[in-house]
Write a structure and sequence with these properties.
Layout lengths: L1 H14 L3 E3 L1 H9 L5 E4 L5 H14 L3 E3 L3 H7 L7 E4 L2 H14 L12
Parallel strand pairs: 2-3
Antiparallel strand pairs: 1-4, 2-4
Helix pairs in contact: 1-4, 1-5, 2-3
Amino acid sequence: MKQNRILSLVGLATKAGKTVSGEFSTEKAVKTGTAYLVIVSEEASGNTKKKFQNMCSFYQVPVYFYGTKLELGAAMGKEFRASMAVTDQGLSDAIMKQLTLANGGSEYVKNESI
């Protein structure tokens, strides 16, 4: 149930025009300071995860590894998506809250064996 709430918030943010997706657009949003939250699929390659981990750490943008490429894509009304950024502070806070709750109320694990 929690997972659906996260993905429905991603869908809501997308409908509001407050998300960008795909590696290039996500990276651009982080580097230009418009990204408040980055979500990378758990299925993304180790290289992609490491790249976003390092970049988001440098630019101080929260990054979470969550969902499959298909789930992220479907939530955004697109096909597969390995990475996405939320460009609205309020929506990114709401999604982060749900990610934390989905992880049993503790801080979400941002870097799993990278």
